[in-house]
Write a structure and sequence with these properties.
mainly alpha
Length: 112
């Protein structure tokens, strides 16, 4: 399964790379689009745009928690997103889903 399949779903697992890209997307949106909308008379538009963006970020965070073997609720702990950025995911299937394809290939590849 490739990256960003069902990005608004809270089910499944994602790796660090997809989570980092998701965060970069959020930061870029917030700092590039946010000030533009806030300086105009369309401040409420930013609020409406933030709803799907926050849903996306929460869904990606939940899937990243799942990859580390935790419930998605863990992401609500302040600063836990930093752990999600650096923690390795489980290299075996867990109750949240199968092993991610690239992890399986890494485990099965011959050691040098």
């Amino acid at each position: 399964m490739g990256m960003f399949k069902k990005p608004f779903s809270f089910k499944g697992r994602i790796g660090r790379t997809e989570y980092i890209i998701s965060y970069i997307f959020f930061i870029a949106f917030y700092f590039l689009v946010g000030p533009t909308v806030e300086t105009s008379d369309m401040g409420s538009l930013l609020g409406l745009l933030m709803i799907p963006i926050m849903w996306f970020l929460l869904a990606q965070g939940a899937k990243r928690c799942h990859d580390t073997g935790r419930s998605g609720w863990w992401q609500l702990i302040p600063m836990f997103w930093i752990i999600l950025l650096i923690a390795k995911g489980e290299i075996k299937a867990n109750k949240y889903g199968d092993v991610l394809d690239y992890k399986l290939k890494k485990e099965l590849s011959p050691k040098s």
